[in-house]
């Protein structure tokens, strides 16, 4: 079945990989972006420069047809937010903007809306057992609160309008093009920098971009996904020390892991004002993925090792080009 799919944020890390996979599967793809010339080859570009999808219902062009929207664009988590009212800023984009897009898409004939939320909508940490979709959400920051509010608002709208809403909550996403903390970890391993992670035993869920894209496409086309919330991971949750060792191998490097007690790392976080960053590094955060397996029969097509090998190969190629330049 060939679909017309609108991907918001099609020029981002996940958006580019998703658009490419959709095209490969034979679907028609329109990328909704704020900067011209940033979508991949074969993707129809729709440039929308209004903030928070303002007036999108009036700006929707007649030639933009879509059966499904996969909504990736968001105001993402900001470590040092300078907004006078951060929660209001997150709500403006992640809640109000998402609803505007959903309503405009429904008016244009869309039947399904796949909302890419975040693990932060349910919690910052798990306590001994992986988090299930049915657990009581307890977001801890404005970003997480806004993503949870968006989930609820979209599901409510779906029930009222008949739009089939699907919510996907990924944890940390990695793969070719990854940046932020994951990229910093690879850079440290490649440089042989000692890492104080040898005694960290807490496990954290992750998802390789190829696995996330595969799940999003199934959520876009499978009738059984309508109205559901799904957690998506690689199916194996490594400790950060294990992650470093697994990454080091395909990078032809050695992970130098110092056995620093986690209590010392937490103390260092408090003294430096970086407790949140330390907790994300050494705290447990696991997601239960049985729901998507039971409802859709979905399993990740790539193992953790395969995902890390591909990511390491990309990193090495990028750094080789940088040295040659």
Describe the structure.
With 325 residues, the protein is α/β, with parallel strands linked by helices. It has a domain at 4-169: Rossmann fold. 43% of the residues lie in helices and 12% in strands. The chain has helices spanning 13-24, 56-59, 86-107, 142-161, 180-191, 209-221, 240-248, 262-272, 275-282, 290-296, 304-324, and strands spanning 4-8, 28-33, 44-47, 68-71, 112-116, 164-169, 172-174, 206-208, 229-231. The chain has a 7-stranded parallel sheet, sandwiched between helices. Strands 7-8 form a two-stranded parallel ribbon. Helix 1 links the parallel strand 1 and strand 2. The radius of gyration is 20 Å and the shape is globular. The mean pLDDT is 92.
Features of the shown structure:
alpha/beta, 325 residues, 11 helices, NAD(P)-bd_dom_sf, SDR family oxidoreductase, Rossmann fold, two-stranded parallel sheet
The top-level CATH class of the domain at 4-169 is: Alpha Beta
Q: Main sheet? A: 7 strands, parallel
State the helix count: 11
Please give the share of residues in helix.
40-55%
Distance between the termini: 44 Å
The CATH homologous superfamily of the domain at 4-169 corresponds to NAD(P)-binding Rossmann-like Domain
**CATH architecture term of the domain at 4-169:** 3-Layer(aba) Sandwich
Query: Unreliable stretches, pLDDT < 50, 5 or more residues?
Result: none
* % residues in beta strands: 5-15%
Strand order of the largest sheet: 3-2-1-4-5-6-9
Counting DSSP E segments of at least 2 residues, the number of strands comes to 9
SS content category:
alpha/beta
CATH topology of the domain at 4-169: Rossmann fold
Rg over alpha carbons: 20 Å
H and E order: EHEEHEHEHEEHEHEHHHHH
Given the C-alpha coordinates, what overall shape results?
globular
Mean pLDDT value: 92
Organism: Paraburkholderia edwinii
Domain NAD-dependent epimerase/dehydratase: 5-225
Protein name: SDR family oxidoreductase
């Amino acid at each position: 079945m060939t679909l017309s799919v609108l991907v918001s944020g099609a020029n981002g890390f996940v958006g580019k990989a998703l658009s490419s996979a959709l095209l490969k599967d034979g679907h028609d793809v329109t990328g909704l972006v704020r900067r011209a010339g940033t979508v991949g080859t074969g993707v129809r570009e729709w440039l929308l420069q209004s903030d928070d999808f303002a007036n999108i219902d009036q700006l929707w062009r007649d030639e933009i047809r879509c059966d499904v929207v996969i909504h990736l664009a968001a105001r993402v988590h900001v470590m040092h937010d300078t907004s006078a009212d951060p929660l209001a800023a997150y709500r403006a984009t992640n809640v109000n903007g998402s609803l505007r897009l959903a309503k405009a898409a429904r008016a244009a004939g869309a039947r399904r809306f796949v909302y890419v939320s975040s693990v932060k909508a349910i919690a910052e940490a798990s306590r001994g057992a992986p988090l299930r979709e049915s657990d009581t959400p307890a977001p801890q920051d404005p970003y997480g609160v806004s993503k949870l509010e968006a989930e609820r608002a979209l599901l409510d709208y779906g029930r009222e309008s008949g739009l089939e809403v699907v919510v996907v909550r990924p944890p940390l996403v990695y793969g070719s093009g990854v940046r932020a903390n994951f990229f910093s970890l690879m850079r440290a391993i490649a440089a042989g920098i000692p890492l104080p992670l040898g005694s960290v035993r807490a496990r954290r869920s992750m998802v390789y971009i190829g696995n996330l894209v595969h799940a999003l496409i199934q959520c876009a086309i499978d009738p059984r996904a309508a109205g559901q919330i799904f957690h998506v991971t690689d199916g194996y949750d490594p400790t950060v020390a294990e992650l470093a060792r697994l990454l080091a191998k395909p990078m032809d490097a050695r992970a130098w892991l110092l056995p620093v007690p986690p209590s010392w790392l937490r103390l260092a976080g408090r003294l430096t004002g970086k407790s949140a960053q330390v907790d994300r590094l050494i705290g447990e955060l696991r997601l239960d993925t049985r729901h998507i397996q039971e409802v859709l029969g979905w399993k990740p097509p790539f193992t953790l090792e395969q995902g890390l090998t591909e990511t390491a190969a990309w990193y090495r190629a990028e750094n080789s080009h940088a040295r040659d330049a």
